[in-house]
Design goal:
Radius of gyration: 21 Å
Structural class: alpha/beta
Distance between the termini: 45 Å
Largest sheet: 11 strands, mixed
Shape: globular
Number of strands: 22
Helix content: 25-40%
């Protein structure tokens, strides 16, 4: 499909949607077709956000709006080589690996075997063909698109992505890997990957969602993930964004939890020139526990914006939020953390912390922790820090024989290790540890 000419960026994507819907993508269940139509209408009404809007005042998406992106069509530019794949995977376990290239499922690169009865790990496109009734119960039912134009645009182009379904009383022993690889071409492309993860009551699963590219290039990933955690279930969700440093990445992760459930989300942002990630979770059952444990490590001219919302909708729930940022060069990190306690959500216990380590005079961090409390028997705290490396700690390490670069790298690494240490998948921990050590050591040498 060629580039579609239009008079404005919004009209360009509306025209692109019409071509997409008329080019074979229209052969879908009626409920999905209606979901798409409503979503493109919502995107057309909202348009691209601007810095005049409070939720976007620190992040300009003008580079995305003004760049002409062609809709990606799978591995038109070729698939990654086996050697490249080894560098992109973050876990050693390969029995539950689902790979997508430029937004489309790649059977040749995927490996799924040894699944317990009833468990589904695969692509949404296949799920829509084999069991549309199951997907209708969950897909698009939780993510909010009314005020999120990028989530609406993703829904309009909803076609393929990761699908994980774990029925009741099943424990998945090995992590599930959803790997989204972009192979940039001569012209900028955009993909709209969608993930749906459903873990029914009293079940447990760990999912690793990764976005990466084998080489540098200009492209845009516009992703949405929905996570449904049943009563008494546990989900550990790891999300690693290590895109090309000339790429754009916009994402929405929305989760809903049942009673007595446990959810931990570990977002790590290392790549992309411009990244925005909206994370929203609703504690919709009593005695739920939610942990957000995030890290962003930025350098050069990178910009990463994290907006999080933890919605305590029911009483006796607990949430813990830890976000650390390491900023060097001329990078800019933005954190907006919102905790909502609804009327009647008594005995809520919620804690939020955002710490930023600024390594350069040109780097910048903006932090906005927020509390909205509509109940009177709660315990909620929030805090944020911003500053350079502690000079006393630097002096101590220098006095022990370390060079300035080594001391700086060690102290900076400890700041990131605080987040990595909370992760429970050992191979993933080790890979992230090596990646962050390598990156910080390189930046320290450059300084």
């Amino acid at each position: 499909m060629g580039v579609i000419e239009a008079t404005s960026p919004v009209e360009r994507y509306v025209a692109q949607y019409e071509a997409f819907a008329g080019n074979g993508a229209g052969a879908v269940p009626a409920w999905l077709a209606e979901l798409r139509r409503a979503a493109i209408g919502r995107f057309a009404a909202l348009g691209f956000p601007t810095t005049r809007q409070e939720e976007w005042r620190f992040t300009s998406v003008e580079p995305i709006a003004e760049t002409v992106f062609a809709l990606a069509h799978g591995a038109d530019g070729g698939e990654p080589s086996p050697r490249e794949m080894l560098s992109l995977e973050l876990c050693e376990a390969r029995r539950h690996l689902v790979v997508f290239v430029n937004g489309c499922y790649s059977p040749a690169l995927s490996a799924v075997s040894g699944l317990p009865p009833g468990v589904v790990i695969g692509s949404l496109a296949e799920g829509l063909r084999s069991d549309p009734q199951l997907l209708e119960r969950y897909l698009g039912r939780h993510v909010v698109t009314e005020l999120r134009p990028f989530a609406a645009l993703n829904t309009a182009f909803l076609h393929d992505g990761g699908f994980v379904y774990v029925p009741a009383r099943v424990v998945m022993e090995e992590p599930i890997q959803l790997l989204f690889v972009t192979v940039p071409g001569a012209a900028p492309i955009v993909s709209h990957p969608r993930c749906l993860v459903v873990v029914e009551r009293l079940s447990r699963a760990s999912v690793v969602e990764t976005y990466a590219a084998p080489h540098d290039g200009v492209y845009w990933t516009n992703a949405v993930t929905e996570i449904v955690v049943g009563d008494g279930a546990r989900v550990d969700y790891y999300r690693v964004q290590r895109e090309s440093e000339r790429a754009y990445h916009v994402a929405t992760t929305h989760s809903v939890q049942g009673r007595d459930s446990t959810l931990s989300i570990h977002p790590v942002a290392l790549g992309a020139l411009l990244a925005r990630h909206d994370i929203a979770t609703v504690l919709d059952g009593e005695n739920g526990l939610c942990t957000l444990n995030g890290l962003y490590v930025l350098g050069g001219r990178q910009h990463a914006d994290h907006h999080t919302t933890i919605d305590h909708a029911k009483p006796h729930c607990e949430s813990h939020e830890y976000f650390n940022g390491v900023l060097d060069g001329q990078s800019h990190g933005v954190f907006n953390g919102r905790i909502v306690v609804r009327p009647g959500a008594q005995r809520t216990d919620s804690k939020q912390t955002n710490n930023n380590l600024v390594l350069s005079e040109q780097a910048r961090a903006d932090s906005q922790p927020q509390l909205e409390i509509y109940a009177d028997d709660v315990k909620c705290t929030h805090g944020a820090t911003l500053g350079p490396i502690d000079e006393k700690a630097m002096f101590y390490l220098r006095s022990r024989g370390l060079s300035p670069a080594e001391a700086r790298s060690l102290l900076t690494y400890g700041f990131g290790a605080e987040i990595i240490d909370r992760m429970e998948i050992a191979p993933l921990q080790a890979q992230l540890d090596r990646m962050i050590r390598h990156r910080l050591l390189g930046e320290a040498r450059a300084a």
